[in-house]
């Protein structure tokens, strides 16, 4: 079976300081609080949600299960990356990144969420759109509302 490399990206400016947004987003366990469609989210071993290597288990629409491992956390750079371990979507070897940067002239924050993954060529376009629009842009839009 042929693999196809795919990537997705979404970004927005939020009306809140970058440090405030980052202090909320750096909690790898709180996705269910702000991400539409995520019903529950827990760190599997009950350990700290900012420990590199921890795994969050998310329950989404239709009891779908997502498992993701925190692969890096950089407070100075206001970014973390995570690997997708289990996902009901037809993707493999997924890695995503969330980054928060200050918009220095306005005091707002710039948030970007991106990811790369492998998929079958027939699924590539649909999965790129699903991640960019259905996951990343939806999540950032919910953050924009949360931070007013």
Automatic annotation (TrEMBL):
<protein>
    <submittedName>
        <fullName>SRPBCC family protein</fullName>
    </submittedName>
</protein>
<dbReference type="InterPro" id="IPR023393">
    <property type="entry name" value="START-like_dom_sf"/>
</dbReference>
<dbReference type="Pfam" id="PF10604">
    <property type="entry name" value="Polyketide_cyc2"/>
</dbReference>
<dbReference type="InterPro" id="IPR019587">
    <property type="entry name" value="Polyketide_cyclase/dehydratase"/>
</dbReference>
